[in-house]
Amino acid sequence: MSNRIAVVPGSFDPPTLGHLDVIRRAAGLYDEVHVLVVHNPGKEAMLPIAQRVSLLEQSIREDGFPAEHVTVASWSVGLLVDYATEVGAGVLVKGIRSQVDVAYETPMAIVNRHLAGVETVFLLPDPSHALVSSSLVRQVASLGGDVSPYVPPVVSRFLDTGGRGI
């Protein structure tokens, strides 16, 4: 496993500007970054996984940051560390917005290190994204609110069309 290869996992339902911020910064820290869309059994998804992968790929392209070493994929079989091991990653990168996120992510980080020797790195968000979550975006969008300040333009356009494509 390499500490030069990182996995940025998440449900990305939908992708937010905070997600892009974490991905961009991870791409600056690691030689290869795998953005991994995973199913969170504790949440009811708004978008199918394939749509989230597509929106992330388009968002990364449109954002213009150096993304030649960024791969977007999905994973639904086995443990997250199984994917990390499969691609040779030694690091998981997680965005942390608050103490609640730290309390939620810490036990998983410890178990992932114990199971597969995969470390977890926590990145704090840009303050402009610190209070935005996919759950909040889903709620605002479902009530017809403007989510454009919180999501990449491609995601905003997609949600504005009612998910009928862009």
UniProtKB/TrEMBL annotation:
The record marks H19 as: Transition state stabilizer. The keyword Protease does not apply. It catalyses: (R)-4'-phosphopantetheine + ATP + H(+) = 3'-dephospho-CoA + diphosphate. Residues 8-139 form the Cytidyltransferase-like domain. Substrate binds at S11, K43, L80, K94. One of its GO terms (molecular function) is nucleotidyltransferase activity. Its cofactor is Mg(2+). This is Phosphopantetheine adenylyltransferase. Pathway: Cofactor biosynthesis; coenzyme A biosynthesis; CoA from (R)-pantothenate: step 4/5. It is found in: Cytoplasm. ATP binds at S11, F12, H19, G95, I96, R97, E105, H129, A130, L131, V132, S133, S134, S135. SUPFAM superfamilies: Nucleotidylyl transferase (SSF52374). Homohexamer. Reversibly transfers an adenylyl group from ATP to 4'-phosphopantetheine, yielding dephospho-CoA (dPCoA) and pyrophosphate. It is an enzyme of class 2 (transferase). Pfam families: CTP_transf_like (PF01467). Keywords: ATP-binding, Coenzyme A biosynthesis, Cytoplasm, Magnesium, Nucleotide-binding, Nucleotidyltransferase, Transferase. Belongs to the bacterial CoaD family. Its EC number is 2.7.7.3. The gene is coaD. The keyword Nucleotide-binding applies. It comes from the Bacteria.
